[in-house]
Write a structure and sequence with these properties.
Layout (H helix, E strand, L loop, with lengths): L2 H11 L1 H4 L1 E4 L16 E5 L5 E5 L3 H10 L10 H20 L3 E4 H14 L3 H11 L5
Antiparallel strand pairs: 1-4, 2-3
Length: 137
């Protein structure tokens, strides 16, 4: 076996590359004052008045970031979109059943990137990133 390939395989076997983290997506992130964020209006009536408000949870923030298109997604291959859809559905199921799920390190990286690009509120982004990866910097 070639030394470079052996080194690569050893790196993949290390905990940093294979670590999974269980995350509870029902958790409500908090702002800089420790308060939960205002519920998000998710349904308007014909007059434009909010009729349904949904509490902001890690699940809502992550699923929204995975499902909504960013400028960088314009010419993206359908397989990447399908991977994001599958992750969003796993998170939604976990949130509905109130069961934490284990995510691989690459899924956590994807969530951090998508949340950071999609959501504009820096305090919300920070709260979510620290909830899914407490030692994030």
């Amino acid at each position: 076996m070639k030394p470079a390939l052996l080194l690569f395989l050893l790196l993949l076997a290390t905990p940093a590359f294979t670590e999974e983290r269980k995350i509870d997506f029902t958790v409500a992130p908090t702002d800089a004052y420790g308060e939960t964020f205002e519920p998000l209006c998710t349904k308007l009536d014909d007059a434009g008045k909010c009729v349904t408000k949904t509490p902001i949870t890690l699940g809502l923030v992550c699923i929204s970031a995975l499902g909504n298109a960013l400028d960088a997604d314009k010419n993206e291959d359908y397989r990447k979109k399908l991977e994001r859809d599958e992750l969003a559905r796993r998170i939604a199921t976990a949130e509905k059943t109130k069961q934490p799920i284990a995510l691989k390190s690459e899924e956590i990286v994807l969530l951090k990137e998508r949340v950071g690009r999609f959501w504009t509120n820096a305090t919300l982004v920070g709260a979510v990133i620290h909830a899914i990866e407490p030692d994030a910097k």
